[in-house]
Each structure stands twice: as C-alpha cells, then as structure tokens.
Amino acid sequence: MIKPPDRTFDVAIIGGGFAGVYCAQALLKQMAGAGLRVGIIASENHMVFQPMLPEVAGGSLSAQHVVNPIRMICQEAEVLKGEVTSIDMPARVLTLTGGSFTPMVTVGFTHLMLAPGAGVDLSRIPGMSEHAFQMRTVGDAMKLRAAIIGRMEEANLLTHTADRKQLLSFVVVGGGYSGVETAGQIQDLIAGVLRYYENITPDEPSVTLVHSGERLLGMLSESLGTYTGDCLAKMGVKLIFKCRVRAVTARTVQLSDGSSQAASIVICTVGNAPHPLITTLGSAGSLPVEKGKIIVEPTGKVKGLGNVWSAGDCALFPKKDGGTCPETAQFAMRQGMVVGKNIAAELLHKPLKPFTFTGLGELATIGHRKAVAQIMGLRFSGIIAWFMWRGIYLMKLPGLDRKLRVMAEWTFELFFPRDINLLTPSFSSPLGEMHLEPGDTLFRSGEPAQSLYAVKKGRVDIRDAAGQLVKSAGPGEHFGERALLADGIWRFDAVATEPSELVAIDGGTFKTLVKSIGSLEMLFRSTAQQYHLPEEIQRTVNAIPAATRDGTAAEVMTRAVISLPSTLCVQDAITEFQAHPHSTYPVTDAEGKVTGLLRRSQAYEWLKNHGLTCQHTLAELPLTKPFCVSATMPVPVLIETLMRSGVSKALVVDEGQHLLGIVTLFDLLKGA
Fold first, then answer.
1. What is the rounded distance in angstroms from the CA atom of residue 442 to the CA atom of residue 453?
2. Which segments constitute the Cyclic nucleotide-binding domain (predicted)?
3. Which among 273, 318, 324, 327 has a CA at the least distance from the CA of 299?
4. 131 burial class (0-12, 13-18, 19+ CB within 10 angstroms)?
C-alpha cells in the first residue's frame, strides 16, 4: 500500500523569490474565496530583495530591511521551509527535507510551479569556491560587511605599510550589476569609515574590479557603461578589463594575462549555473531542459506538460519581441504574476494569456550618490539617476513597513556616518559536541542524516524498527556513516543508555573528507556494512541451504585451524607463516584459550621496528581482539551476528573460551 502524501495542495510553488512570491500573490488574488490550497516551498522563510544586497554589504542598509517574511506577504498560502530533494511527476508528489530534526515530508500537488532560481558553480575557477565571498543571500552580504570591517580593525594594529596594504586589498570579480554595485559600496564604506582608523592612510585600502568584457554593464548603452567606469575610477576603484580570473589563492587573484592581484577578500558575482533540482529532473527526462533551463511556452506552462509551470531564473522564458527574458528581478516578478493568473485561468477553464512584458529599463548604483539608468529609451546618470534608483526600488520593495524603514535609514545615512560595529555573524562549526542523558533520542528512523557521530564517553544504542539492537556504541566508536554514504536517511533509532558525550561531524565535512582521502572512504564503507536492516539479514539467511540453516556454529565450523601459542617468538611465527599462509592466526595460551589474533602485517611491522634478531614472544605483541561466537549459536543468529558486527569470520569457542574452530560468512554462503 502506497503511503499518501503528508500534505496536498492544489498548487505547489517551489521557490520563495520574486517569481514564486508574485505568482502566489496573483493566484490567490484571482481565486479569492475559492478555498484554493496553495503551498510555497522555499529554502528560506523570507523573500530577499536582491537589488539592495550591495547596500547591506556597504553598511547603507540593515539586513532585516531587505527581507520580507513570506508568511506575511502571502498570508493565504501555506509556507513550508525546506529543500526539495525529488519530484515524481507522474505521481504528482514531491519530497522535501526541512532540517536536522524533521523527517522527509511528501507533498502532493495538482499543479506545480517551478521557480527555485539559478544555482552557482564556482568550481570552474580553482580556489574560487574555497576563498571567494558571494552576493546571493542576506547572509552573504552580512558576512562580507563583517569581513571588511574585520580587516580594517586588524590592519589598524599592524605597523608595516606593506602588511596593511595586503590586508586591505579587495577584489570584485564581474562587471555586471552586482559587481559594479558591490565595488562601489565597498569603496564608499571604506572612504566613510577611514577617518576612524588612525593608523590606516587613504592610499592603503584598494578595491579592484575584474571584468572579462571591454566595458562595465554591457546590458546598458555604451555611454552609460563608460560613465560607470569613469565614476568608479574617480572614486578610487581600479578597473581591469578584458581579463578573466584564472585561479584564487588565500592572498592573490591570478589573472588570465599572467599577472596577479593581491587580495585579502575576493567577491565573486559571476558563476551562475543551472539549479541542481532542474538538472536532475532534466537528466531523468521529467522536464524539457535546454542549457540548464526549463523550456516554457509564452504562458509560462512547461512545454509538453499540462500541469507544470515555471518562471524566473530557472526558466527559458520567451519574450514577445523574440529571444528569451534576462535574469533580472523585474522580469521574474512579472513572469510570476502572469503564471499565477494563468494557473487561475486554467482552474476556471478560461483562456491563457501570453507574457508580453518587454522591460521598462535598467538601473544600477555606482556609489558616492551616483547611478545610471536607462528607462523607456531615455538615459540618466549621476545624482538624478541615483534618486530614481532609490525611488523606483523603494516602490518595488514589498510591504509598507519595509518601505518606511528603508526610507528612514536612507535619510539618516545622508547626515550620519555609516555604522562600523563589527557584528560577526555566527556560522556553524563542522565539529560540535553534545551531551545526552539516559533515554535521550539522538535520531529516529526516517529523519534526515546530518552528521557522523563519535562517542567520547557513555553509550548509545542503535536499534532497528523491531527494537532489536544493531550496535551499542561506546567510547572510541562511531556511527552514522551508512546513512551519509547512502541516501542521507536514518534507518535506525539511536538512544543514549547512559550519560554520554558525543562529537558530531557535519555531513558536508564528512563527505569532503571521504572524497579526498581514499583510505577513509574504504574504512567507512567497511564499517557501514554492520548496519543492516532486518530484511537484508533475512535475505542472506534465506540464501543459506536449509540443511546448513538448521545447524549450529559447531556443526558448520572448520575444525582444522592453525593457531599459534602465545609463548612462540616472532621469528618462529614467521616460519609458521611460510608453512601455513593465512592472513590471521588465533593466538592461544597454555590452556588453549584464545588470547588474541595475530595478523601477518603486525608481525612484519614488529620485526621492521625491532630487528630480525628479536626474541619477543607473541604475547608481547599488540594483538587484535578476536571476534568469538559460542559453539551452540544457531546458524541464523550466527549470520546476523557476523553481519551486525561487520566481520566476515569468527572464532568458535566453548564456555571456557577454548578454541574449537573457525567459521566464515563466505563458507556459509558458498553452498547456496
């Protein structure tokens, strides 16, 4: 029986940007009073007014004033904060994850609107993803501003001019809107606060803008692009044209012409890439995709699909006058509105209307109270364009309260200096420690796996759905690798059985380490084998011949086992290795009790470090702890024990721990 979705919507909208939010608003307005169930699924619970992000980085605006809670601007819609991991188009069901404590949530839909925006890929430039700041979210802008002020504070402590210049070198990559506005805001921020840093001279900070084109703002006229470059240069920004970034290091930016620029902070405003969700759906044939974007009709309906729509940066949206729409806020907003109205029309069995908007114009701030604008064929620059930019975007900003707050903040900025408080945002550490009391649940089956856990103190029991113990992890042991290496979902419950201290390594860091260090991947894939589901174990048991399955460990074991006495010297053990080649040998005491396992590699390592003439006995070597099972253990239990323990062989002993034989999982299976 197929489990029904956790929630069901008439229209599910993926994306909380301009396209998604304005689609929801238009749809709800058209269907007012109809009881339409609309769900907005977004990675954040707010919509970011991205044109104002550079002003947040430059300290002109507070971060909270450029975001709007989606729940407040779309009050009739249900908002789900989470990341969509998969979409089953034929079944009309999508799956999302909401965080560390939330299991996967399934959502059914009648109509689906795809507006997740674009992704980012900085991996094409070596070092860019490791060292560069981005300007995509409010967190990015806050982090950048804190980093700039932090560099100023540190440079003020240095005594050498060269060191201060190195620390205060900022490089912006990309000459589009974001690059130009960010470079101008950084230069304005530095110029506005420099007088408060008595040890920094005006010639020491530097802002460099690297652009691959011949002029800035290629989407505007040549005269406005040239004007923009001239203004930035007069402000003190160094411009580098017709050059690409080849690589980024911790202290420099390497350029394609062979030169390099000192860079303490690198801001990357390029690198847009297809959204991963769209790429996955396109590769699976669930969506028509071209150049990483969804192919849509002029109505916003996805080509070839009757109930799927798309808009914004992820859609190849056709323009009325030919070509496709640019990735700008004004187009995303109006595309969303058209799609919202057309979904309503579809539900009401009315004709759909095509997208006819061709653009009102383009605006960009340069900094120093200057801007450029190209509106309805007219061109503006300087302070007039700056007032136009602020007025137009103030009107576009959703919510009266946000408009008033931004207006007040802009007014204060005209008379007072920018804020230089260093409020460093706190970011999650890849390592975290936690305390658990007996009975505390760490995770439950079905929840998303976020971390690998190591036990410092105490004990955590991992149990399957039937409550059967899979592993009891004590000090020095770890767990969680199976879920992280597989589908990222816990298949077991983990509960502390005594006061415990754990170290958690976040999943992203774990995967990076595993991919980078081959031996770690082999280790974790090996230890992951011990976490078997009951049905997996039962399949293995069923594969054993019935005659074998009904026996005990004593009946299926190999009795001819080459064991070594603990009093044997290492050199004599080497002779036994040559006579009876095996990878491991049980070591027994004078009474025949098992005391450990000797690996050939252990003996050779010992000889390498102590010399060929050593007379040490095997009892003095660091032997491996043996894995022993009772002779009376039934074969099904034996198989489960081996699989749960992640081992392939076990020593069979009696009640007194005397060696009787050896049994391997391979021996049990080979007769199947």
1. 10
2. 431-514
3. 318
4. buried
Q: Which two tokens stand for residue 427?
A: 């970011």
Asked if residue 582 is part of any domain, the answer here is: yes
pTM of the entire predicted model = 0.73
Check: CB of residue 466 under 8 Å from CB of residue 523: no
Instruction: Answer yes or no: do 152 and 256 share one domain.
Output: yes
Q: How far is CA 117 from CA 42, 109, 136, 277, 333, in A?
A: 11, 20, 11, 10, 12
Nearest to 325 by CA among 303, 352, 295: 295
In a domain, 420, yes or no: no
Question: For helices 18-30 and 329-347, what crossing angle results, to 10°?
Answer: 30
Any residues with CB less than 8 A from the CB of 346 and at least 6 apart, and which?
111, 352
Rounded CA-CA distance 421/545 in Å is 74
The answer to whether position 75 is within a domain reads no
Last residue of a domain, one of 359, 382, 402: 359
Q: Tokens at residue 67, please?
A: 């975001």
Output b/e per residue, 151-183; b: 16+ Cβ within 10 A: bbeebeebeeeeebbbbbbbbbbbbbbbbbbbb
Measured distance CA(298)–CA(317) in Å, rounded: 7
572 Cβ contact list (under 8 Å, min separation 6): none
Do both 482 and 561 map to the same domain?
A: no
CA-to-CA dists, residue 660 to 509, 526, 628, 668, angstroms: 45, 28, 10, 17
572 and 447 in one domain?
Answer: no
| Residue of 620, 618, 638, 630 whose CA lies nearest to 657 | 630
Q: What is the distance between the alpha carbons of residues 656 and 638, in angstroms, rounded to a whole number?
A: 19
- What is the span of the domain harbouring residue 488? 431-531
Rounded Cα distance, 297 and 248, in Å? 41
Q: 115 with 308: CB under 8 angstroms?
A: no
Inter-residue contact 483 to 534 (CB < 8 Å):
no
Q: What is the CA radius of gyration of the chain?
A: 33
The answer to whether 55 and 98 have CB atoms below 8 angstroms apart is no
353, 368: one domain: no
Instruction: Check whether residue 342 and residue 408 sit in a common domain.
Output: no
Give, in degrees to the nearest 5, the angle at Cα 344 between 343 and 345: 90
**pLDDT for 670:** 61
Q: Does the CA dihedral 276-125-362-409 come out positive or negative?
A: positive
Total domains present in the chain: 4
Residues of the chain with pLDDT under 70: 1-2, 100, 423-431, 610-614, 646, 670-672
Neighbours of 579 (CB within 10 A): 8
Rounded Cα–Cα distance for residues 506 and 489 (Å): 14
Domain termination site, one of 485, 506, 531 = 531
pLDDT recorded at residue 592 = 86
- Residue 359 has phi, psi (to 5 degrees) of 105, 135
Q: Is 144 helix (H, G, I), strand (E, B) or coil?
A: helix
pLDDT, position 403 = 85
Q: Which residues, 6+ apart, have CB-to-CB distance to 258 below 8 Å?
A: none
Query: According to the model, what pLDDT value does residue 672 have?
Result: 45
| 261 and 378 co-located in one domain | yes
DSSP state of 65: G
Cα–Cα–Cα angle for 470, 474, 475, rounded to 5 degrees: 150
Listing DSSP states for 92-136 in one string gives TEEEEE--TT---EEEEEEEEEE----EE--TTSTTHHHHEEE-S
Between the alpha carbon of residue 645 and those of residues 15, 127, 549, 589, 667, the distances in Å are 44, 41, 19, 25, 17
Q: Which two tokens stand for residue 5?
A: 């979705």
